[in-house]
Amino acid sequence: MASGSDAPKQYGITKPLSLLGPVEADLQRTEELEKFLLESGLYESPDESARREEVLGKLDQIVKDWVKQLTSQRGYTDQMVEEANAVLFTFGSYRLGVHGPGADIDTLCVGPSYVNREEDFFIVLHGILAQTEDVTELQPVPDAHVPVMKFKFHGISIDLLYASVSLLVVPADLDISQGSVLYDVDEATVRSLNGCRVADQIIRLVPNFENFRTALRCLKYWAKRRGVYSNVTGFLGGVNWALLVARVCQLYPNAVPSMLVSRFFRVFTQWQWPNPVMLCSIEEEELGFPVWDPRKNPRDRCHHMPIITPAYPCMNSSYNVSTSTLRVMLEQFQFGNRICQEIEMNKTSWPALFEPFQFFEAYKNYLQVDIIAEDDEDLRLWKGWVESRLRQLTLKIERDTYGMLQCHPYPHEYADPSRQCAHCAFFMGLSRKEGVKIQEGQQFDIRGTVDEFRHEINMYMFWKPGMELAVSHVRRKQVPAYVFPEGYKRPRPSRHVNHQSDKNDTEDGTATRSPDSQLKRKHDSVGTDDIRYAKRSSTSPVHPKNSPQSGSTGDETRCNNQIKRAPSDASGGSPASPQASERSPDTILSAPRCTTTGAVCSGDAISKHSSVPLVENCTTPTVAVCTTLKRVAEKVVSELVGSERLGSNNSAELLESMEKEDVLAENVRFGGNGVAQGGLPEELEV
């Protein structure tokens, strides 16, 4: 009889889905994958690795000298000055060993209790770094959710956090994974410490660290190529991808990297969001810090894609995800799952998985956000602020259109080389929510939504003259040429499309189009005529701090103290949302596709190339022109787990239920011990 010690170790909150190891074909595919990653330039050279170590050594000495200097200035004894110490930790991609050439290094400085963040770190240490040779682009961000100092040291980007712990002397061998470091510290310090604590927990909780690293390096590269790598934009960042990959490693503890990549897409095309992804149980200690718990915390119930950090206090690392960005990621998971199936059947090879997403072919309508400044330094600061708020524009459009107008923010910036000033631009794809019946001629008026966003942007504390923002509408054929790679030729749209034939082809599973072309056709369900814009007068932006306050009337447009009504549509169509300007509040509330009643320009005006969004619904009949997510999911699930006993765990029903507003994290299934249960269907191919 086998003893209890012979039982396989359980790494996660549930038992593994499979203990099977690789066969010869899996080892061969892993070798091919590792070769592809190497040839793609994802590994840094030995010289760059050595330079990183040198930079970290110099930074470590700087923070140690800084603490000794402060200790001496504050009158502590010579022995205290001698023992005074600060410890430098790394976390993020560098700590996990998945960083690539040119990647930044996330660092944490832990200092004694008498060295604070507000003055000592952001003023004194900032001054020392400013005087340090080879330190450039020094940017303190004290008001961030996690206060940080950003700079380049010998050309290597550094993000430096600070945590003051309740110790007079910080030992050189300080173990910050211990809960005792959190005693008597504020929440900003807890968040600063948790980056390192989470990285240490991930390393401890995965069965095979080397296999985890290769799979994570692969999937981060895939996410960047497919446009879903960006925490600030509402997708997933480095720690989110690390936690997802670590969970798959727990479910398949003996799998090699090629298997883990394939199983990653297999698992997360079927995951029943908003059930959380967790590497371990959520622990509540006596320190009193809030932990993620939708049963107790109303805010946690609104999270769409909870990915919980494994270190106390456990938090949702993906709270930025919105319904729109979750939809985009699910589509990309379906793409990845399909390609991996073809790789396993020897129908294609690894490069097919990493084909870049053709964003500018996927939609017919886009919002273009132009960011302009006097010089490159001002642009760097101004762009950072605007980019950090772009997610809010997505959320506001979702809110003001009741989720009927969907946004796809693309986490890549583009620059127009023909402009004389410093410039960059971001783009958002716009599409009507699929499967929703519409009324002919019905409109979305998102002018007020955009103006609200612009008003918030212009509240930037460090605004300078020359910092400008323009939000405009561009159709697919009007997308500027500078966003395309050199030599790229735009596809010519077909003039005749047999929608009914397409519908039949895709519904019976015989369609042979690529996954990207299917996404394109689905998003094209919003026609070019669906979005109409009312042109605005051209004036220079006036910052709110410098603009006089003026009164307003609810249905009129306020720009630079001049009250004027929005002009008619330039295309000669109907006036720019006359209904929006004249309907009563009761009418607005009863019309599920309406947004705000008018456009209010908050002390500034859109530039001469800008347009104010007025979105009208498609007037063409709604037809199914591509395979819907539900049918794709249903087909994938039937292939993976068979058609028997799918019941309510069918992925098609999962995706349909996720579209309902009441399916939020408050409906997470908890076991009798209060631990949230896994989000997978009961039956899943192992």
Tell me the layout of helices and strands.
Elements (H helix, E strand, L loop, with lengths): L23 H16 L6 H28 L4 H6 L3 E5 H5 L8 E7 L5 H14 L4 E7 L6 E6 L2 E9 L22 H19 L3 H17 L12 H14 L5 H12 L54 H22 L14 H4 L2 E9 L2 H25 L4 E10 L7 E11 L10 E2 L2 H11 L10 E8 L23 H9 L7 H9 L7 E5 L21 E3 L2 E3 L13 H5 L2 H6 L20 E6 L12 H13 L9 H8 L28
Parallel strand pairs: 2-5
Antiparallel strand pairs: 1-2, 3-4, 4-5, 6-8, 6-10, 7-8, 9-14, 11-14, 12-13
Question: What does this protein look like?
Answer:
Among the domains are: 12-41 and 209-357, Poly(a)-polymerase, middle domain, CATH 1.10.1410.10; 46-205, Beta Polymerase, domain 2 (2-Layer Sandwich), CATH 3.30.460.10; 359-435 and 445-478, 2-Layer Sandwich (Alpha-Beta Plaits), CATH 3.30.70.590. The chain is 35% helix and 13% strand. The protein is α+β, with helices and mostly antiparallel strands and 686 residues long. Helix 18 packs antiparallel against helix 19. It has helices spanning 24-39, 46-73, 78-83, 92-96, 117-130, 187-205, 209-225, 238-251, 257-268, 323-344, 359-362, 376-400, 447-457, 499-507, 515-523, 578-582, 585-590, 629-641, 651-658, and strands at residues 87-91, 105-111, 135-141, 148-153, 156-164, 365-373, 405-414, 422-432, 443-444, 468-475, 531-535, 557-559, 562-564, 611-616. The chain has 19 helices and 14 strands. The longest helix is centred in the N-terminal third of the chain and has 28 residues, at 46-73.
